[in-house]
Amino acid sequence: MVPPSADKPLLDDLQTLLGDRARAEDFELGLYGKDGSVLEGRPAIVCLPINSEEVRCIVNICGDHKRPFIARGSGTGLSGGAVPVGDPVVIATAKMNRIIEVDLDNRIAWVEPGVLNLDLSTQLKGLGFHFAPDPSSQQVCSIGGNVANNSGGPHCLAYGVTSAHVAAIEVVLPDGSITVLGDLTAEPSGYDLRGLFIGSEGTMGVATKIAVRLTQNPPEVRTLLLDFSDVRDGAAAVSAIIAQGLIPAALEMMDHRAIEVVEAFVNAGYPTEADAVLLVELDGLAGGVENGVEVVRRVAEAHHVGEVRLAADEAERALLWKGRKNAFGAVARIKPDYYLHDTVVPRGKLVEVLEKVYRIADAHNLIAINVFHAGDGNLHPILAYDSREPGVLERVHAAGRAIITASIEAGGVLSGEHGIGLEKRDYMGMLFTEHDMATQDLVREAFDPEGLANPLKILPSGSRCSDSFGQHVPEGAWV
Amino acid sequence: MNPQHFIEEPILRFASDVGSVGPVTVVGGQTQWEVGGLPFPGSREVRAPAGIWSHEPEEMTVRCGAGTSIGDLNEKCAQFGQMVPFDLNSEATVGGVLAVGRSGFRRLRYGPIRDLVLQIRHVDHSGQIVTSGGPTVKNVSGYDLCRLLVGSLGKLGCIAEVTLRCLPIPETTLWLRGAGDPFEIYNQLYRPSSVLWNGKQVWVCLEGVKSDVESQAALLDFEEVDSPPNFPTQGRMSLEPKALRGLAGNSTDWIAEIGVGVVHCGESQTPAPLSNTNKVLMNELERRLDPSGRLNPGRQLVAT
């Protein structure tokens, strides 16, 4: 780490710009060293800009001092993407939280990056529109963070991930210039830089304004809870529903342990004796929804479903979803810590990979809990543990690696929606060749030749820029 | 070997066809051949392989050589009640359609074609194969080079193989024609597949289960027609959806996609200018991904 005195000229410049919104107190730096993952770093300085121009000036000052910078939304990311490494300046977007314009004629809203995901949809409620990406953290995660990670959520099964819902982004590039990628037209000129930027985890610049697409609220919604006495039947039902040509709005699965912890936490009336439940949501016009309910019911019966519970009203529907969306927090009832994984496998391999996940957890003496987006094969195994047990983190990491390997062997990918960040960058070689990654690095470099934007993320170390910062990941952290 | 790294033989042959020296032009179905300018004469012509390597109905994905025609692709998918909604000339190739990047007339419901792409293998300027994206329906592993390649006119790499997301063929498809304010009609309907307007008439495409299509159709006093209108093909404009209102009273031949912003028109159009900053970024990408400018020379996305 750079000794604090070396940061003094940089801090002076930033404080001239921002006053007390540029900070370097020990306690605060510690707070901004973490995100939702188990990884931890430490920033040199934390900045809280209030507009694009301030972001531009911060990035310019960082450039003058040859100091990396890292944009940060709500810090709910699970792959260490917002963990500061290389003594960077953190640019926290929390104070950039205005909804700038709602343009219903274009079905677009311009928002600042710090606007919270759910706040936008809440604001739009009376207008008949919403922002479709709905990560489980949607009450707290920011739209800027959604852009950085190309976030998903249960409803992206039918509606697509963040990239499908962003038309344009105002970006401060690593050289301090400001530009808009994409526009509100259907076919912007030139290459799709917008699409490239989304999911680049802050390594190509800082998003300062985002034009998100607004989705019509569906006229009808039905939510069903199906319980199965064998998790394999539940998983097979998932494939069978999709094979019927039905794409539900959401198709979520919870295994026995997940049901137990969630039920004890939210009392949603989940059947605690079941081996697995599916939460299925159908939306759209009445005919399609009723037809979908029948298809789901028929498929479920063919797969030995126990009870088919159809939410009677909005309150019951909200309760069923509350269980799903709070599942991760509920894990604290079993163990104080958890490690949440995120891989995708072909739907047809769900049963096989789930069984492997249980075996892997057993072999490492850990508890595996599965709550996940079954409809798109997006597994989220949770390994619950107590970090006070000596050596437990090593077991957690070994099990994690085995789960990722099993997913890739089944024809899957490293991450469905959480991103690569620091956590998985050294696994990129499982999915990509050296040449694939070198090509990705060339693309990144076109945006950031100096390697100042969120360095050491996504691509494994060994590329030119990463080397110059060395390894700053703390001892015991998993990289 | 990791299954992810297995590459089909025809892709390897295509890579050696592209090679590492001399200008090359990838030829597809030549249905949108003139977009972005004609290739330089004398540049060597290569064709991406045709063939559907796998269609997995339960995954709703299909993997094929980029030289596969849209017709063949949809014929294969239709055997399982599925489709890839490209809505273009059936002679067009998958790689060509993606390289040009123009979506079909049902984009309003199904989204732009780039969102149907899960994985692309391309051959780069050095004749090497690069894989980006992933085979699953959801994936955020690594930089999204697929987005960059769609609409790139082959300037950053030659698309060799793609994995696409399929969709179920709707139970009912109904085209209607009538008169009225197209913007009001669009706002009245729930997720129509297409709303088209030529200044005089409005066409609407409704899809879904029969009862929904009928209930939506009942909101309009329109007559049923067999198919969409013929689109003028010479020109194409890309406007903000709300800017389409400004077309009212324009007496030339055009058809606008309401809610999308694409205007099909009779005269060729110059694309909207790029900001200097974006031009620099795009030039930097071209310089890095094709340093000698050998891939599809003559095609131009970024005016110099």
Walk me through what this model shows.
The complex is a heterodimer of chains A (479) and B (304). Chain A is of the alpha+beta class. Chain A has helices at residues 8-18, 26-31, 52-64, 117-124, 143-149, 156-159, 193-197, 231-243, 256-266, 286-302, 314-325, 327-330, 350-363, 392-409, 428-431, 434-447, 464-469; strands at residues 22-23, 45-47, 69-72, 89-92, 99-103, 108-111, 129-130, 166-172, 178-182, 206-213, 215-216, 220-228, 250-255, 276-284, 305-310, 337-340, 343-344, 367-372, 378-379, 381-385. Chain A folds into 4 domains: 4-92, Uridine Diphospho-n-acetylenolpyruvylglucosamine Reductase, domain 2 (2-Layer Sandwich); 99-216, Uridine Diphospho-n-acetylenolpyruvylglucosamine Reductase, domain 3, CATH 3.30.465.10; 218-330, Alpha-Beta Plaits (2-Layer Sandwich), CATH 3.30.70.2190; 335-450, Alpha-Beta Plaits (2-Layer Sandwich), CATH 3.30.70. Chain A starts with 7 loop residues before the first helix and ends in a 10-residue tail after the last helix. By secondary structure, chain B is an alpha+beta fold. Chain B folds into 2 domains: 3-168, Uridine Diphospho-n-acetylenolpyruvylglucosamine Reductase, domain 3, CATH 3.30.465; 172-265, no CATH class. In chain B, 21% of the residues lie in helices and 24% in strands. The radius of gyration of chain B is 20 Å and the shape is globular. The interface between A and B is large, with 90 and 84 residues.
